[in-house]
């Protein structure tokens, strides 16, 4: 008996050894900074001098700053369009991949390539593709007799252009759905067909519940990523050739946070911005988890 | 993970007899329509990249003519781009940083994943839940204090902060590797124990050699993540000779592109050089990319 508990203690000690990189990293690079940024959000800090306690000043400023609302609005606009459009596009194409049988994996490869393109390169590329006069997007629209908008300079079209750019890199979501769809047991479709279910009913009552796990996962992950879009928009609209329209409509939340912290060196204020982002993401994720409970319950009942 | 390659397996005999393989209803006439639709969409999705490569080889005045095919191939664009900007240095920097990031994160995450997969200790489930929770934490929240840490160590302005955090493992890879470790046959571990291997011995001589696919997944994912990252190089690097490609590319865009000299041929050449290694990596390690994504997507 005591020998067994001695063994168990030895195993726990060994585990501590194996876990030590993560434990140290968690303390130093996750938990520590998380608390430190909360503290910094109540200070005035320029990264050179010592942080100076200013109470809730940063949060009062947050409520007054029109650019907070602007950047949060831009980011929400993007998220609300990007996430469902990506999911719909990926699901549509994943269904086509399944329907294409043995050709599916080949096309999966082709559609995934944009997702390995570096975001900065994507930003540069879309700056040119979306160019109002000579960009490929408007050239393509012209083929259909549509006179495309000035995607990169008309304030009303900058964000839709960014949404379009985001859709191009939908490959990861596609790969997840393709794998999920191929995991749906064929017998379920056979049974549904015997019950006289038509194609829509089979999709609605067999496919959707069976891939609801993948749908939920991509919903959460894509939403969190959308709130943190940075590299592509920063590349396109910030730098030496900043235009006022781009700086306004392309001001996504993390771009604003980055500029406050590392361009204006207002790190206390940027920390308050970071905590607002953290709370927004947390609330949205929790809401999605609650939503998913109904989802999962529904699947269980069927 | 086997499910990923499921549809490439030959159909069971019974399905063949009835003339219907699994997924058979999705083939035949429907299959042709699907392949045709996919072919059209594939052209739409890859056209921007094809155009990018073509435009990078065009004479300067032709860049915007919409054609993916240069009237004359100006290979010299690539000579110019190497001469005018320190592209070779940036390529080497990016490669070195990405390699360091990938190796460190894989080694450390494998150690941690081993503990979660094979060792019993109090609070294991709770701690693993914490690992998963940190995946959801936005990087922006810890960015500023992390910067302060590297600043206090005198390491801002060097490439160290771009990879050294990876020495401590990363939740995503811990999760990925643990999932894979759990699929290893327990008999093999038992055999190792019978042979007198300790935990470290099991890790090195049994688990690691059997987990090569998962380790490769971790390596290629982090290579890609590090190679393409802009935020960290933007925060930590000031001197051009230390830049990584994304950081340098932004400078090239600002200097030669809009508002600059309007040398889009050069900007695109640099763009191609930043993208091609990732496309090659993806083609070389495609199966690992797909497996890795499917593993994380199916939890």
UniProtKB/TrEMBL annotation, chain A:
Is this entry keyworded Transmembrane helix? yes
Which membrane topology describes this protein?
Multi-pass membrane protein
> Where does the protein principally reside?
membrane
Report the transmembrane regions from the record. 21-42, 76-98, 110-130, 157-180, 210-231, 267-287
Q: Which GO terms describe its cellular component?
A: plasma membrane
Q: Which CDD domains match?
A: TM_PBP2 (cd06261)
Q: Which UniProt key words apply to this protein?
A: Cell membrane, Membrane, Transmembrane, Transmembrane helix, Transport
Q: Which domain of life is it from?
A: Bacteria
State the family it belongs to: Belongs to the binding-protein-dependent transport system permease family.
Know the name of this protein? Answer: Carbohydrate ABC transporter membrane protein 1, CUT1 family
Q: Which organism is it from?
A: Streptoalloteichus hindustanus
Automatic annotation (TrEMBL), chain B:
* Cited Pfam families: BPD_transp_1
Report the main location listed first in the record. membrane
Q: Where is the composition biased (Basic residues)?
A: 18-27
Q: Which SUPFAM superfamilies match?
A: MetI-like
> Where would you find the membrane-spanning parts of this chain?
30-50, 96-119, 126-150, 162-181, 266-285
Segments carrying the region annotation (Disordered) are 1-27
Residue ranges of domain ABC transmembrane type-1 in the record: 91-285
Any keyword Membrane? Answer: yes
Q: What PANTHER family does the annotation carry?
A: ABC TRANSPORTER PERMEASE PROTEIN MG189-RELATED, ABC TRANSPORTER PERMEASE PROTEIN MG189-RELATED-RELATED
Its protein name is Carbohydrate ABC transporter membrane protein 2, CUT1 family
Q: Which organism is it from?
A: Streptoalloteichus hindustanus
